[in-house]
Design brief:
This protein is an alpha/beta fold. Helix content is 34%, strand content 22%. The chain has helices spanning 19-24, 35-42, 68-77, 92-98, 114-125, and strands spanning 4-9, 27-32, 49-54, 82-87, 106-109. A five-stranded parallel sheet has the order 2-1-3-4-5. Strand 1, helix 1 (19-24) and strand 2 form a beta-alpha-beta unit. Helix 2 (35-42) runs parallel beside helix 3 (68-77). It is globular. It comes from endosymbiont of Ridgeia piscesae. This is Response regulatory domain-containing protein.
């Protein structure tokens, strides 16, 4: 049986490694450190779940956040993937705007708690 794939986008980091949690839930985990690498990986793979950090930077000229390009690619390559966003509370208003255009399955605010992330994975599993 093929394992379900889970893509993790870690651009900033600074929090615990949740790979063991994902593996306990029977996911084959791919970790990348840029949206471009995530997009390239998704051309060949169809993740069931994508876990990605969200941040906003005033220097982004054509978008509001780091994730919009990734979310657009997900719509194209694997529209049924469940997206879980890791976010600092101050970016929540920006995420709310992004969520008007893109589907987000769940949000986990910093400080990250494994229990919250695990409850979302259990919801994905149904």
């Amino acid at each position: 049986m093929n394992k379900r794939e889970l893509l993790v986008l870690v651009e900033l980091g600074g929090y615990p490694n949740f790979v063991p949690l994902y593996q306990r839930h029977s996911y084959a985990v791919e970790m990348v450190n840029s949206v471009r690498k995530a997009q390239a990986w998704m051309k060949r793979h169809r993740p069931a779940v994508v876990v990605a950090e969200f941040y906003s930077d005033p220097q982004f000229r054509d978008r509001m956040s780091n994730l919009e390009s990734l979310l657009a690619s997900l719509q194209r390559y694997c529209a049924d993937a469940k997206v879980i966003v890791l976010i600092e509370p101050q970016y929540r208003p920006k995420l709310e705007q992004v969520m008007k255009r893109y589907s987000i399955f769940g949000v986990v605010e910093f400080p990250l708690r494994e229990e919250r992330l695990e409850s979302l994975l259990l919801q994905v599993e149904g």
